[in-house]
Design brief:
Protein name: ATP:glycerol 3-phosphotransferase
Family: Belongs to the FGGY kinase family.
CATH architecture of the largest domain: 2-Layer Sandwich
CATH topology of the largest domain: Nucleotidyltransferase, domain 5
Strand order of the largest sheet: 16-17-15-14-20-21-22
CATH superfamily of the largest domain: ATPase, nucleotide binding domain
Helix content: 25-40%
Largest sheet: 7 strands, mixed
Radius of gyration: 21 Å
InterPro entries: ATPase_NBD, Carb_kinase_FGGY, Carb_kinase_FGGY_CS, FGGY_C, FGGY_N
Oligomer: single chain
Number of domains: 2
Mean pLDDT: 91
Low-confidence stretches: none
Distance between the termini: 59 Å
Number of strands: 22
Keywords: ATP-binding, Kinase, Nucleotide-binding, Transferase
Structural class: alpha/beta
GO molecular function: kinase activity
Length: about 450
Amino acid sequence: MSDDLVLAIDQGTSSTKCLLVDPSGTVVATGSAPVPIRYPRPGWVEQNADEILTSVLTAAGQCLAEIPRGRVCAVGLSTQRESAVVWDRRTGEPAGPVLGWQDQRALPICDALRKKGQAARVREISGLPLDPMFSAAKLRWLLDETPHAAVGTIDSWLLYALTGSHQVESGNASRTQLLDVRAGTWSPELLDLFGIPSTAVPVVTASSGNLGHIGAHRGVLAGLPITAVLGDSHAALYAHGARTDGGVKVTYGTGSSVMRLGEPLSEGVCSTIAWNDALAAEGNIRSSGATVAWLASLLGVDPDLIGHMAAGTASDGVVLVPGFGGLAAPWWDDTAVGLISGLTLGTRPEQLARATIESIAHQVADVVDVMGPVDALLADGGASGNDVLMQIQADLTGVPVLRARSTNLSALGAAFLAGGFTTPISYDEFRPQPGDAAAQRSAWRAAVARARTPHHRS
């Protein structure tokens, strides 16, 4: 029917957002709910699985409050990736904390495998470098604390909690480091290397199709069919309409994701599944919006003010490398440290703000450098709303940046796949301007080299 609506649930790191979307792509209702994040020790990042589920139900309730139930025909899920969840398979209750994708506590597990010479083999099968950002080592840590539990990622937990079925979508599964990325099935060798019982992992399913009906005990969602699930970065790529390997998408969030369809051309980026069985190349950046939040907390100001502070000044030689939990793509150096260089007695908060915004663009440019030929960057995510960042990004990469005028691209991508429709996305364009980009890139690379430990430097 022409008036059928799709409910898109976008479960992110810090909040859950819901959109009701009609076949023309128009958003007719919204809802949102925050999700707490806890940092119990340095390098530890935790959430609570029940709080994540509650945020989904709350946001969905807001979104559906004024809509006749019969108009909603399908549900699409977009979720944060790599975060690890365990639950008691007998009771269905969470059996430990959610270890967030930024969590570093499983680094010793990765180090032990690296010392055994397994890093190359892990990458060969999974398409991912051996790194605690991915789910496998975190799941091993959780199982050490809670043996005999069922395991999964955020999409797997939500599918279980909503439908009672223990399953995981293929793109999210490819981020666990347990999947044979080309076969699309769990790798017995990787399960054995990480010590994950095959009985604990979910069934791998396609990204779209009949993924289950929501149970009667889930209030306003009861009985609705889930017809699409995507990782948030994958959903944004889908929303941009990038169905071939020509488009390069950058999602600016807590971290950033640079992704294009097709095989990787460099070991600096990962091989992953975009949706269903389509392969993609992706470079992950650990700290983007998180860097802005850190500086805002340090200065005691609202994070939105950082962008305003950066707009009216230059960084004046100050370079910030946000290696808070190491550096991800293209370096994959989990022992890199955070560093600020170029400080003088005249350095002011405004210069730090500018260096913070520049650090996001520099990290994206590092990934773009190893992605292969790029005609333009398709930008989305919260920080893409900052015109200063978008212009810096165009200047540092030397290619136009096309910023989606629609917000919530991840939710829209889930809605498009769930509803079987797509609508064109309109963009604002930022073209490269003449300047000192080469000198800035050189100073950035020098700072990155200082932030990295000697045994990782090339």
